[in-house]
Amino acid sequence: MDNFNFYSPTEFVFGRDREDECGELCKKYGAKKVLVHYGGGSAVKSGLIARITASLDKAGIEHTELGGVKPNPRDTLVYEGIELCRKQDIDFILAVGGGSVADSSKAIASGVCYDGDFWDLYCGKAQIQKALPVGVVLTIAAAGSEGSSSSVITKEEGRLKRGTHSDLIRPKFSILDPQLTCTLPAYQTACGATDIMAHVFERYFTNTPEVEITDRLCEAVLLTVIKEAPRAVKEPDNYDARANIMWAATVAHNDIVGVGRSQDWNSHGIEHELSGLYDVAHGAGLAVVMPAWMEFVYKHDVMRFCQMATRVFGCEMNFGDPEKTALEGIRCFRRFLHEIGMPINFEELGAKREDIPTLANNMAIKYTTRGFVKLSRDDVCSILEIAADAKL
Ligand code: NZQ
Ligand code: ZN
Q1: pLDDT of the residue at 370
Q2: What is the number of the ligand closest to the CA of 100?
Q3: Using CA atoms, how far apart are residues 26 and 38, in angstroms rounded to an integer?
Q4: Rounded distance from Cα 71 to ligand 1 centre (Å)
Q5: What would the mean pLDDT of 239-265 be, rounded to a whole number?
Q6: Which residues lie across from 33 on neighbouring strands?
Q7: Exposed (0-12), middle (13-18) or buried (19+): which is 228, by Cβ within 10 Å?
Q8: How far apart are alpha carbons 369 and 199 in whole angstroms?
Q9: Do residues 388 and 352 make contact, with C-beta atoms less than 8 angstroms apart?
Q10: In CATH terms, is domain 185-389 a member of 3.40.50.300?
């Protein structure tokens, strides 16, 4: 195991109706004037925004609202949010929604404190040095932004999706009420489950030896999602399934399952090009990319893929031909994704084979030098070719 620091300073507030405490939580973290940032309508329709503002009023905290965050959040709304915060002396951002709203909130929080174009912080030109505090009321278990140090934003012009990292944008608190996720459509539930699994796999496929504790934590999260996601898809109001998935999402991405080991993240790098270009859901893009990536790299460490196959998907170990076991594990993963309603190839996702060179060019600029297996531009093309034609 490698040396590591684990820093997860977020206060997680979990359970039924806990969002009613958000006013007091904002006060605890020093808020005087809050920007309530939310998405395209689900949180208004469910009455959640009204409850949040009532809780802020009760705590005597001023607030302004800014809705309209789209999935794959855009730079244009971030600019609007930054201007609004500066004009109104906002000192705290409260994200009410999913990963997109949380990421847009983190971008506004860091952009307000940056003397320049906030995109500099996303394109690698500058590092985040300061940010307003952010709190989250989560409505979808998926991206893990509620406990992560990252944020991903799409630049409308050129449709480039880019991310940034800093402990300064980790939320001060995140309220996780599983009841809020019961209104999620089956497709979004499944996209979330896929993203959770992908966050674990990005860490599971490592070149660091002797990492039993994090291997086992990873496997626990994966087994939980495999058990609970189909339940939540079939029974949207099942609190216990929702609750287990919600905590799985946070644990999968606050890095407790990934410390002390090298990580990959190339499937995410490739997927961000797909959701940037086609505006598809991040989880759906991962369902197409990640099994294809696995098929491309499994020979690098066949036994690690056998470990996944046997411990996570219950495959029988073929000692005479371990490659067969490794491939069977990958097949089980793809079958699981299909069964919960995810696309498994380009056609089902709405991606185009002729775009592969463009996707690979954009991806190659960022990611070729790291990961479980280092990828060249041609490797990225090969992975996308596998993804384009994937079958069960
Ligand atoms: O906008 P509304 O109307 O709220 O609808 C949303 C949206 O259409 C809907 N939704 C959310 N909660 C709901 C609901 N509908 C009904 N009931 C509810 N309770 O779900 C749709 C998707 O929401 P979104 O926030 O986009 O989903 P998710 O949490 O999957 O976030 C995806 C974004 O996070 C990024 C992704 O790239 C993508 O842009 N990621 C962020 C990460 C991070 N910051 O650490 C890591 C991830 O790997 C990921 O890249
Ligand atoms: Zn993800």
Answers
A1: 77
A2: 1
A3: 16
A4: 6
A5: 97
A6: 62
A7: buried
A8: 20
A9: no
A10: no
Give start-end residues of each CATH 3.40.50.1970 domain in the chain. Answer: 11-180
Asked if residues 310 and 219 have their Cβ atoms less than 8 Å apart, the reply is no
CATH number for the domain whose boundaries are 11-180: 3.40.50.1970
- The rounded distance, in Å, linking the Cα atoms of 86 and 73 is 20
Torsion over CA: 331, 336, 337, 343 (sign) = positive
Question: Alpha carbon of 363 to those of 71, 115, 135, 155, 358: distances in Å?
Answer: 20, 29, 31, 15, 9
Helix (H) or strand (E) holding 13: strand 11-14
pLDDT tier, 365 (very low <50, low <70, confident <90, very high otherwise): low
Nearest ligand atom owner, CA of 143: 1
How far is Cα of residue 235 from the mean position of the Cα atoms in its chain?
23
Ligand 1 contacts CB of residue 182 (under 6 A): no
How big is the chain by its Cα radius of gyration, in Å?
20
Describe the crossing of helices 282-297 and 186-204 by its angle, rounded to 10 degrees.
Answer: 40
The model's pLDDT over 161-178, given as tens digits with 9 standing for 90+, comes to: 899 999 999 999 999 999
Q: Which residues contact 47 (CB under 8 A, 6 or more apart)?
A: none
Query: Residue 158: pLDDT band by 50, 70, 90 thresholds?
Result: confident
Ligand 1, atom 37: nearest CA belongs to which residue? 282
Ligand 1 atom at minimum distance from 39 CA: 1
Beginning with the edge strand found earlier in the chain, give each strand of the sheet holding 134-138 in spatial order. Answer: 11-14, 173-176, 134-138, 92-97, 33-38, 62-66
170: amino acid identity, one letter: R
Does ligand 1 lie within 6 Å of residue 42's CB atom? yes
Whether the pLDDT of residue 62 is over 70: the answer is: yes
**For a substitution probing ligand 1, which of 65, 103, 136 has the most ligand atoms within 8 Å of its CB?**
103
Burial letters for 121-148: b for 16+ Cβ neighbours within 10 Å, e otherwise? bbeeebebeebbbbbbbbbbbbbbbbbb
> Where does 11-140 have alpha helices with state H?
22-28, 42-45, 48-58, 75-88, 99-112
* 267 ligand 1 Cβ < 6 A: no
Dihedral of CA 14/15/19/22: which sign?
Answer: negative
Q: What is the largest CA-CA distance in the chain?
A: 69
